[in-house]
Amino acid sequence: MGGTWQTVRGGIEAGETAVEAAVRELREETGLTAAEWYQLSSIDSFYIAATDTIWHCPVLVAITEREHCVKLNAEHDDWRWVPQDQVTSAFMWPRERELIAETGTEIFRNSPATHLRIRLTPHWPP
After folding, report:
1. What values do phi and psi take at 45, rounded to 5?
2. Prediction pTM value
3. Strand-pair partners of 53
4. DSSP secondary-structure letter at 54?
5. Are 61 and 103 in contact (CB under 8 A)?
6. Cα 73 to Cα 2, 54, 56, 97, distances in angstroms
7. Distance between CA 74 and CA 72 in Å, rounded?
8. Phi, psi of 25 (to 5 degrees)
9. Within the chain, what is the greatest distance between any pair of CA atoms?
10. pLDDT tens digits along 57-97
11. Which whole-number Å values give the CA distances from 62 to 47, 49, 70, in the listed order?
12. Gap between the Cα atoms of 38 and 70, Å rounded
């Protein structure tokens, strides 16, 4: 979807959990590793007409260091950090904007987000 801004997304490979897939996709697409991972209470669902499929995706949030060097793979042609007040105009999909807003509310605004934190096992990332 060239010319659009989207968050990192990807599929689960055989034998992976959703969290393992998220760790892998973040590393593959951006070269980043996250210091912390959180889950939102939402499941993102969307339809892809080209394959006539409906996808149900857990929403996971990666906390990274802003100073880390982003190294994009061939799936992307550019990247940027988007300030919270520009999310509405920057992201194409309404549901993605809603999920980013939920991240701000549940993770970053002094809510009891500890219940949403994902504890990675010592062997992660794989």
Report:
1. -120, 135
2. 0.82
3. 48
4. E
5. yes
6. 14, 26, 25, 24
7. 7
8. -60, -40
9. 41
10. 899 999 988 888 899 998 888 888 888 888 888 888 888 89
11. 24, 29, 14
12. 21
Residue 79: partners with Cβ closer than 8 Å, 6 or more residues away: 30, 70, 72
Nearest-angstrom CA–CA distance, 57 and 123? 24
Specify the length of the chain in residues: 126
Give the model's pLDDT for residue 26. 95
- pLDDT tens digits, residue range 17-59? 999 999 999 999 999 999 899 998 888 888 999 999 998 989 9
Instruction: Give kind and range of the element (H or E) at residue 36.
Output: strand 36-48
